[in-house]
Amino acid sequence: MNQLLRNIGLSLLLSAFVFSAQPATAQSIDEPTVDMEMVAKFIEEGIERSEIMAKASYLTDVIGPRLTNSPQMYRANEWAAEVMEGFGLQNVYQHEWGPFGRGWELTRFAMHAQSEQTYFPIIAYPKAWSPGYDGPVSGEVVFLEITEEKNFDYWRGKLSGKFVMIAEPAQPQLHWDAIARRHTDESLLRLANATQRIASGQQGGQTPNAAIFARQQAAYERAQFLMEERPLAILDESYRGWSGQVAISGATLPAAPDTPWGQRPRPHQIDAPTPVPQVSLAREHYGRIYRMLQHGKTVELEMDLRVRFQDENLMGWNTIGEIPGTDPDLKDEFVVIGAHLDSWHTGTGATDNAAGSVVMLEAMRILQAAGVQPRRTIKIALWSGEEQGLIGSREFVETYLARPEGNPGAPSSITRLDGYDKFSAYYNVDNGGGQIRGIYLQQNDAVRNLFRTWLLPFAEWGTETVSWANTGSTDHVVFDRVGLPGFQFIQDPLEYFTLSHHSNMDTYERLMPQDLMRNAVIVATFAYHTAMLDERLPRKPGPELTAN
């Protein structure tokens, strides 16, 4: 037994006697316990014989980026199913959902800048679902400044064969603050004391003020104009970061500001118009080109942008497997652990979200290696379509658990399906590769004492925070919306939101082995103990229920 196990054994010796008072096959929500013997097996297997980094390398380095419905995404689905079957999981299958639309993959890209006095290569990436060309194209760069109607008349007919910059560059910033950080005692205390929802950054449903609406309307009119003029490409800069970081997502199509978010056209849709190619540059290179233009210099770009669209299969896949339950009265009930397998295309999708995916796979391997005999079935679900709006997990919920009525984001009522009363809990990892430091309650205070108890074995790792709040914006949300217990773990931020998230820096090197190994052990512990409870996890008040 390694030093970690010895430390846990010493620090929790007295508690272990209390925890073992109840048999491992029966646990109560009102009197929660920890099966320390089983947790010790999880720790030994997950720390001493971990396979997590080998899986992370194959998924990121070999398969690479996994845009929804791309060939790489389907390869990742197939690989995940093979891994699950290799662990001995049962009922492994691809849950087909959709249709989503066409897939897209980048097959070649390079960009070079040339002026009368200098040449330099450009750090840049095309946005997903941008169309490509049969070979390299060249053209002059222009800065499109539209401040009034007559500007459209000036530029009309002049943008064909040009590269168009559409915004002034961001003001340069130095890295005064650390890019990577862990939670401190103070930040964890704030989470523990939280009494309201932590903002997710999405302000859906709010009515913009007049100034914001005017800016949105101007952007819409400019986008419509560019669709008509068809320049070689629209250029902007990375929406975040410096030092060569390029953070982007997908190409966009014009949409009036008052168009509901769910009704806006998306370039992956099979009947959507073809967008103008859209390319994001590293801020340093975008700024340099802009300043050269301000000096009156001509800058020409050569771009080799080649892509392949996949139209053969318009359906998305979620990869599902399970460890069947053994209790005759509870085996049809189930616990789900999950993460999204899809990613964007600039890096290799390591922290977003190969990290969560391999944690879930490793958690299932640990459970199998420990020989668990769960009372309820434990399922693993690796989603696709998360980056386009939690689509894969939402389709799973609406196929097996519940269909929301009205606004999907805040349904007024739901139609209960067969799985609704068999579902116990969903646990999600999707905030990068940082170590789990606790869990968000999703405002479900009825599980506070239960989760505190299950975190006790990991106090030595600094993992003991239970927060009433939640982070939102990832796959646990679709369960919560229909009144089912869905939870996201609190993680150390590391470099996630400052460097790797949706960027070309999201690679294997950003993963920390110790953090991922510990996360898999913690997830295995929560899945196992949830499956062993006498009752399903309590549910907070939710939408009105109707029978199927």
Molecular structure report:
It is a single chain. 32% of the residues lie in helices and 20% in strands. It is built from 15 helices and 19 strands. Strands 1-10-12-11-15-18-16-17 form an eight-stranded mixed beta sheet, with helices on both faces.
Features:
single chain, 548 residues, alpha/beta, 8-stranded mixed β-sheet, 20% strand
Average pLDDT value? 92
Strand content: 15-25%
The largest β sheet comes out as: 8 strands, mixed
Strand line-up across the major sheet: 1-10-12-11-15-18-16-17
Radius of gyration: 25 Å
Layout: helices, strands, pairs:
Blueprint: H1 3-11, H2 13-19, H3 36-48, H4 52-63, H5 71-87, E1 90-97, E2 103-114, E3 119-121, E4 124-126, E5 137-143, H6 149-155, E6 163-165, H7 185-192, H8 210-229, E7 233-237, E8 278-281, H9 283-294, E9 300-310, E10 316-323, E11 334-340, H10 350-369, E12 377-383, H11 391-400, E13 402-405, E14 413-416, E15 423-428, E16 436-440, H12 448-455, E17 465-467, H13 476-481, E18 486-491, H14 496-500, H15 513-532, E19 544-547
Parallel strand pairs: 5-6, 6-7, 7-8, 11-12, 11-15, 14-19, 15-18, 16-17
Antiparallel strand pairs: 1-10, 2-3, 2-9, 4-8, 5-9, 10-12, 13-14, 16-18
Concise overview:
This protein is α/β, with parallel strands linked by helices.
